[in-house]
Design goal:
Radius of gyration: 19 Å
Strand order of the largest sheet: 1-2
Number of helices: 6
Number of strands: 2
Shape: globular
Structural class: mainly alpha
Distance between the termini: 50 Å
Length: 186
């Protein structure tokens, strides 16, 4: 292993929504679950799914994006969340039923399908159903799958596991140059 490996990142300075876009080399612990799911670009991405049809997949992607909106993240990370949902649904009929129930709930809440609603109406719909088991499953699973995506880590500037680099302590874990300078003491 190269003993000269250090944190390498460039700050782009671009702020997109609440995500400061950074170019970071992120590493996942090899003991953790595998690689990112590869999906075709464009509308063909749903062809990679085994359980969900296009409408269900697009609705779940819209729900995930509404729950955790990060303007700087590409839509493909939300689609990978849905691909993980699809794997869950393939393995568990109960999960498949709950996700289908969520899509029905959000589509029936307004005169238009959920995917055609504005962000404000989408948020209103999700607030109405947040106490349901279907919502809780999708919300918690979105957290798990979205924030475990290495592309998301890179966008947020998180390098991931650091053991292979000697840990964080001597690698600038306390580097706070991204914060504004504190106000001068009076």
């Amino acid at each position: 292993m190269d003993g000269n490996l250090h944190c390498r990142h460039r700050r782009s300075g671009a702020l997109q929504g609440d995500v400061r876009l950074m170019s970071v080399v992120a590493h996942k612990d090899p003991k953790l679950a595998g690689r990112a799911i590869e999906l075709p670009e464009g509308p063909e991405w749903v062809s990679a799914l085994r359980v969900f049809d296009g409408h269900v997949a697009e609705t779940l992607a819209s729900v995930a994006h509404t729950l955790y909106p990060h303007d700087g993240l590409p839509e493909r990370v939300y689609r990978r969340v849905v691909a993980q949902f699809d794997r869950m649904a393939a393995a568990s009929p109960n999960a498949a039923q709950m996700m289908a129930q969520l899509v029905d709930l959000v589509d029936e809440a307004m005169p238009l399908p959920f995917v055609e609603l504005s962000d404000g109406y989408r948020t209103e719909v999700l607030k109405r159903i947040e106490g349901t088991p279907a919502f809780r499953l999708v919300q918690r699973s979105t957290v798990r799958f979205l924030y475990d995506d290495i592309e998301v880590w890179q966008a947020f500037g998180y390098e991931g596991a650091s053991v292979h680099l000697g840990g964080y302590v001597k690698r600038g874990f306390d580097d706070l140059d991204w914060l504004p300078d504190p106000p001068a003491a009076s």
